[in-house]
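Human:
I keep going back and forth on a fold encoding question. Comparing notes only helps if you start from a blank page. Show me how you would write down a chain together with its backbone fold. Write it directly below this note and I will take it from there.

Assistant:
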Amino acid sequence: MVKAEKSDHAKFLEKSIQHLQARGFKEIKADLEGYETPKSYLKKSTGTTVTPDIVALKNGRKYFFDISLKSEKPKMLKSKWLFLDTLSRMKSNRFRIITTRGHYKFTDTMLQDINLSNKTPIKI
């Protein structure tokens, strides 16, 4: 999700973290009070910083998670997803997208627009 919208969707972020903990993820970092903040990356082409919504470990592998909710800035969200996908592939990590009911179509359309249709969103 885009940084400006994080405060609006804090409850869904918390629900996503609980879902991941139930699935066996450890050392969860999130941009939420009570959790360690994940590392931010600088995107040199635009000069913006990109921070994954959630970073967690499972079986020794690092996973980046991004929350997909309808956004006023879909172009920024697409750019963030492409960057995180590329970063995760470079370092043999994993990138997943989490969404919820009412946002499935938006998420699928966004993934098709940026040719990441091989990604299956985690539906909570």
